[in-house]
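Protocol step 6 of 9: fold each sequence in the batch and record its structure tokens directly after the sequence line. For illustration, a two-sequence batch is reproduced in full.

Sequence one:
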Amino acid sequence: MPTRRHRSSTVPNPLPAVSLTAPPNSDSIGMSRMDDATLIEHGHHFGRTINTFTCILRLIKHGRFILNVLHSQQLSVADLPETEQVVWRTYRSLLSMLPQLESIHSISSLTRISKLIGRGIIAGRLDDKKMIRDNIFIWLTDAFGDDALGVAHLDKQDRGLNHPFTGALLCPIDLDWDDPLTQEAIKAGSYKALAWSWPLFVYDWGLSLGAENMWQGRFRSSLLVAMDLGGKTQPGDCCIYGMTHVTPRSIAYIIMQVHFALSSCRFFTVNDALTSSREIYESTITFFKSSSNATEMRELLVWWDE
């Protein structure tokens, strides 16, 4: 197993409450400890392990609003709607990375911090996109030889559904890519590989896959493991963030990046209809969060941590 990169620390429960009143000179004290490069690096980590599509300033404002609701109405987090619980957990994760945010209240300071973290999220996603684009070419060529002929290194025009091999990897598992009518339907957009019909590349291809066991080999493919960004910055991340285990969101991030790398799309855009990157990312997270999948999810995370 390659060394893992996407690990996260366990967030203390509960975190200290965010201060509702600003101590004297708190903004200047907090800002003096957060230079641009550090905030951008925090953005790299946040996007890879927590949420790659979050607007940070909106998250901070929403998180503080929820905090006020919890305090003023004497509620527990469990009393909140599920959507608000998700926002709260994401906000707490941000606070665990940047506890200085508790004492920063000026809009100009929060805007600057948010922009730099957001820049880091985008830059990290772009760096990972380029690295996985290159690594996936090498991996496919080494693993499948002649079957992967024609998959170009830099030019993505002949990837995706335009190439029989990458098309097969992107085909939903319950469909037959070798059927010409199925190929036509997929290319026409009649089918999408999402939480109810996963693409072949997320599975362990060494197993006999069947509809009777939806978890058989799922999210255990050697391709996902190989693209886990393992050796790039993990030692530093482990030191800075105290990462201890792979998270469902980091697996979803890898799936999104691999899906994009296999596709013929050249440019990553948040709401691109061709690759549905955001839809794939969020539907994967939703699937992982389902209580009916809890046992299998625990087993999957143990497997990834081995």
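Sequence two, same batch, same settings:
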Amino acid sequence: MSKCTEHLLQVLSRNTSLWHTEVPSFCTRLFIAGSMLWVLSALLVLFGCFDVWYFLRGAWVVIKCALQEPVRDVLAEQVIHSRVLSQDLDFMGHMNNARYLRECDMGRVAFYTRNGIFKASRVLKATMVIGASTIRYRRSLAFGEAFELRTRIVAWDEKSFYVEQRFVSKSDGFISAVMLCRQNVLRSSPDKILEFLCKRKVECPDIPEDLQQWIKFISASSQALRAESGLEDKTK
């Protein structure tokens, strides 16, 4: 065999070896790139169709509170600490009005998790839904401002808990906003939930005058809406 032929065979052998090593490597890179594209597309659809951060934060609040010491006093006020972040801002540069309601959601989740009301509701196969809420804004919370969200049960009746939540600025203790919430209990009652938790009947505190007026307003509004819809004989 001539030297020229031997050299040609060596070149062909070398190229064949490179082909066998480079092709799998290229296919692997192509597969990884395609997988990443699918993952990014799925995340884009997920974040576009659902409020993912809301659910992630809610799950984090539940896990965090479940690992903390339970609050034995069901009626005790609970406090969570927070700060106004960039995603909380509106065009005016202070905390968006809607963000207060979201913070209240998280405050109630923490409140019911630590004092056991969520657990009792599941055992009793009850569901709790918001029946009404009123929030009063007294002073805006600025970017970076630290605040406390204080949550407590004020009173209850045969159908609902009445919950107050206050946004208190840490800088001077000013109550920046206050919300009243009617938490309806379906397929059970507040009395049954509290009796299950405390192993005794719990007496409802005296209902403050302002809360009584708010309850009357809700009742009057419900009656007017039922009459307007021709549903006077049906419950709301």
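Proceed to step 7 once all outputs are recorded. Observation for sequence two: Helices lie at 3-49, 52-67, 97-114, 117-123, 190-198, 209-229.
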